[in-house]
Amino acid sequence: MVELTQAEGAARVRPMRHVPVRRPGFDLVRRAEDELTAARSAEDAESAYIYGHLAALRYAAAVLAALGPALRRSRSKSVWVQLADRAPQFAHWAAIFEESSRTRSALEAGLAVDLSGDQVSRCLRNADEFGAEVTTFVDVLSHSGEASVPHWSRERFAS
């Protein structure tokens, strides 16, 4: 791209600086992937479960970030409630991870939890599958021009 400037009565052309496009949600996707990596290399089942669930939380936050600010501010809601409200296509994931959040909270509090290998595997598999869907969603949304544009300005600038 070039930018035309006026200098002493004559037009000059100079290259414009490349300004990186901010793609909301991608930082959170990357952080979620880091959590999944930590989960896979965890020494114990409890840590793996916690990291897996934290990955899912970051993926949910990535969706919300990619969608931009909510139209209305409401009372504090869990990320899972917000996800189901604002991105209904992820409601089944929200239900799964909202249920498993109780287990994660108990583990983080140091409470005794009867945690099976199957539960840990399921948590990591769910986080992985959810992450794949979220990554695609955030990528598509960022290329559609809808990402992070406030709803009020979409209407204002629509042609």
Strand-helix topology:
Blueprint: E1 2-7, E2 10-15, H1 26-40, H2 45-67, H3 79-86, H4 91-108, H5 117-144, H6 151-157
Antiparallel strand pairs: 1-2
Helix pairs in contact: 1-2, 1-5, 2-3, 2-4, 2-5, 3-4
Task: Give me a quick take on this structure.
By secondary structure, the chain is mostly helical. Helix content is 62%, strand content 8%. The protein has a single domain (26-142), classed as Four Helix Bundle (Hemerythrin (Met), subunit A).
Task: Describe what this molecule looks like in 3D.
The structure is a single chain. This protein has a single domain (26-142), classed as Four Helix Bundle (Hemerythrin (Met), subunit A) (Up-down Bundle), CATH 1.20.120. With 159 residues, it is mostly helical. The chain contains six helices and two strands. Mean pLDDT is 82; it is low at 147-159. The radius of gyration is 21 Å and the shape is globular. A two-stranded antiparallel ribbon has the order 1-2. The protein has helices at 26-40, 45-67, 79-86, 91-108, 117-144, 151-157; strands spanning 2-7, 10-15. Helices cover 62% and strands 8% of the residues.
